[in-house]
Write a structure and sequence with these properties.
This protein has helices at 9-22, 26-32, 35-38, 41-61, 76-83, 89-106, 122-132, 155-167, 188-198, 222-232, 239-248, 262-270, 282-291; strands at residues 70-71, 112-118, 138-145, 148-154, 172-175, 210-211, 253-256, 275-278. It has 294 residues and is an alpha/beta fold. The chain has a 4-stranded antiparallel beta sheet. It has a two-stranded parallel ribbon with strand order 1-6. The radius of gyration is 19 Å and the shape is globular.
């Protein structure tokens, strides 16, 4: 997972810190797998958090600038809040492990599903969901680009909505290999478990703005930030609006901190005037450092 960064001491120390917080060896899991373990959401969420924070710390260690503002897609919001000093890293690691368990347990296995709808606008996707619910839950939950929208809910309703979206002109409707229907209203029990845990933690005001998923807003009051995190679990990820908000605030370069490049590829499709890049390896980080050094 983090092999692209070699033997970086900053990367390794961050994973060691996360391992202490969880009481298990995250570095070994990230380095050796197996794939089945990596794909379990209770492992995936802490690993992704640690990866994002580790890469941000390495960015600073190499002289990278403090960002004008940050945001995170779903789980990535926790990494963004750690970077901004709102959440302590150790607290965040144990919190996202709980988040993973709570989301997994909110809906019995096999009862929920998610699907990506490609080539259809948000209003049409929402209409397809509304027409297909038939007493069940199916909702638009990830607005990744203007024409890449993920839906989630009860499995049968998701299938009906996917079929309806194709009938309305969607290019594709792809069922996703996920373990739970994330970010739909079926996740409200998970949100309440998060609320109880967050109430036990100490949150700080952000050192720089964090655009949250639920409201597309930059909050400064730790209590309001906590409430937004609670709602995030059962609310849509409004990524298109987030990128548009950042562009409107004068942001010009958006860099993805993590082992992947998916978000970087979405940037230009979400907002004009934004350049996106991924720091999934040292080469990508060097490009980002050079582009922002002026």
């Amino acid at each position: 997972m983090m092999g692209a960064y070699g033997e970086s001491a900053v990367i390794r120390s961050t994973f060691d810190e996360a391992s202490v917080a969880l009481g298990r060896d995250l570095w070994k899991l990230a380095s050796e797998g197996p794939a089945e373990a990596l794909n379990q959401t209770v492992n995936t969420q802490p690993l992704m958090l640690a990866s994002g924070v580790a890469i941000y710390r390495l960015w600073l260690d190499k002289g990278g600038k403090i960002p004008h503002m940050v945001a995170g897609h779903s789980l990535g919001e926790y990494s963004a809040l750690v970077a901004a000093g709102v959440l302590q890293f150790g607290d965040a690691v144990s919190l996202v492990e709980l988040r993973a368990k709570a989301m997994q347990e909110a809906v019995p296995a096999g009862e929920g599903a998610m699907a990506a709808i490609l080539g259809l606008g948000p209003d049409a996707v929402v209409a397809a969901c509304n027409d297909s619910a038939k007493g069940q839950v199916v909702e638009a939950v990830n607005f990744n680009t203007p024409e890449q929208i993920v839906i989630a809910g009860h499995a049968a309703a998701v299938q009906r909505a996917a079929d309806a979206a194709k009938a309305m002109g969607a290019k594709r409707a792809v069922m996703l290999p996920v373990s739970a229907p994330f970010h739909c209203s079926l996740m409200k029990p998970a949100a309440e478990r998060l609320r109880k845990r967050l109430a036990e933690l100490s949150l700080s005001s952000p050192k720089f703005p964090v655009v949250n998923n639920a409201d597309v807003a930059c909050l400064t009051d730790p209590v309001l930030i906590m409430e937004a995190l609670v709602r995030q679990a059962a609310s849509p990820v409004r990524w298109v609006e987030t990128m548009q908000y950042m562009a409107a605030q004068g942001v010009t370069h958006v860099y993805e901190c993590g082992p992947g490049k998916v978000l970087a590829g979405l940037v230009k499709r979400c907002a004009e005037g934004l350049a996106g890049g991924a720091m999934a390896d040292l080469a990508g980080m060097e490009v980002a450092l050079a582009a922002t050094s002026a």
